[in-house]
Prior knowledge:
The chain has helices spanning 3-13, 18-21, 23-35, 37-41, 55-63, 76-86, 122-132, 150-162, 179-188, 208-218, 230-244; strands at residues 45-49, 68-73, 92-96, 107-113, 133-144, 193-205, 250-262. The protein has one domain: Rossmann fold (3-Layer(aba) Sandwich). It has a seven-stranded mixed beta sheet, sandwiched between helices. By secondary structure, the chain is of the alpha/beta class. The radius of gyration is 19 Å and the shape is elongated. The protein has eleven helices and seven strands.
Amino acid sequence: MDIKQSIRRNFARRAESYDRYAGVQRLMARGLLDRVQEELALSRRILEVGCGTGYLTASLRRGHPRGRIVALDLDAALIEQARRRLGPDARVSWLVADGEFFSRGDFDLIISNAAFQWFTNPGGALQAYAQALSPQGCLAFSTLGPRTFGELDASLHQAAACLNLTAPPAIAAREFLNYRHWEDLLALAGFSQVRLTRQIITADFPNVPEFLRALKAMGATNPRPRPFSPRLLNALIQAYEARFRTNGSVPATYEVIWAIARK
């Protein structure tokens, strides 16, 4: 299956449960809005890439009620949920499309929350966005870096070693781009004014199965999945709990990167 269709399927299946578990993604969205207030106030046309269930879209409307927004996502089910969240609004256009390859129009602000880590050709996408921005336009996005879910990665390696497996199942976060890589890609795409910030955020869960259920409920699972055997799953849980449990909970690290860029 094409990786993009796998990503679309993962998130579409969890459209109804996503908002209940996406606390870190909401924090990322709020951090993004805090960093783009000046640009938002000046933007007449806004493109939101990967609108999901519409949390950021609704915040954009509240922050700039006169702006026009094109909100797109890969999946029609997510678009429909976002549309229900906002209700009838003539200033919001909804579009089912792959935002990585969407460059039509002329926008003052292109914005995206927690979507760019899934891109297959991020450099090409940034170049297309640079072309789709107005002369004084701004690109603003939040994404996740490769230190995300480091505890899970380490525990999978330990569990695989205990079971004498040749290699553990890969987690998608291992291939996420780091801060410097995004900086380089933005420069290559023609952005000369770039502000990047990075923060490590920790979410706590009562136990490892609850953390894994939250990942599944958000659709944030590997787009190239390898099935876990019951033995590997049990070994993973034991390794994670033994190594990382602190004060009655287990942590999950998110490496958050925010970027504000102008041509």
